[in-house]
């Protein structure tokens, strides 16, 4: 039987982060699994005549802010499930999530989807969709209640 012992939960600290975290910790509680919340800091600089594919982040203030937000998220969710921790990384979002899950031996990735449509999806793509396609473990898409 496939056992789920470690769950990676990418978070963006946006509108539905708390809902995704609650779902992930409730799932982990039922499976007696550990949860690692993962936030990836990525900065893209846009010029009027050029859009780069990726620019690495070196801004210590941005990373420090993300680490404070992560500490708050972990503290809040540790009250309901002690088996959670957090990690902040910098780099390409999809690559970082997939690589981290592989490095950590994750059994499951629970990733939220915002349901982008139309031009937004064409221009930005879906991080969740790309993670699911590239993940080396099981992945579950979570669509927050609106």
UniProtKB/TrEMBL annotation:
Pfam families: Usp. Transmembrane segments: none annotated. GO terms for cellular component: cytoplasm. Residues 4-142 form the UspA domain. The keyword Cytoplasm applies. The keyword Nucleotide-binding does not apply. Keywords: Cytoplasm. It is found in: Cytoplasm. InterPro entries: Rossmann-like_a/b/a_fold (IPR014729), Universal_stress_UspA (IPR006015), UspA (IPR006016). Belongs to the universal stress protein A family. This is Universal stress protein. It comes from Desulfoprunum benzoelyticum. The lineage of its organism: Bacteria, Pseudomonadati, Thermodesulfobacteriota, Desulfobulbia, Desulfobulbales.
């Amino acid at each position: 039987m496939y056992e789920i012992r470690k769950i990676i939960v990418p978070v963006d600290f946006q509108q539905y982060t708390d809902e995704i975290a609650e779902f992930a910790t409730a799932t982990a509680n039922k499976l007696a699994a550990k949860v690692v919340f993962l936030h990836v800091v990525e900065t893209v600089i846009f010029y009027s005549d050029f859009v780069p594919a990726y620019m690495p982040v070196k801004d210590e203030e941005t990373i420090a802010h993300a680490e404070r937000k992560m500490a708050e998220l972990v503290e809040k969710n540790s009250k309901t499930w002690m088996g959670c921790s957090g990690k902040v990384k910098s780099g390409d979002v999809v690559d970082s999530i997939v690589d981290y899950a592989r490095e950590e031996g994750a059994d499951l990735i629970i990733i939220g989807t915002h349901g982008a449509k139309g031009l937004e999806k064409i221009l930005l793509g879906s991080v969740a969709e790309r993670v699911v396609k590239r993940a080396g473990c099981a992945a579950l898409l979570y669509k927050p209640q609106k």
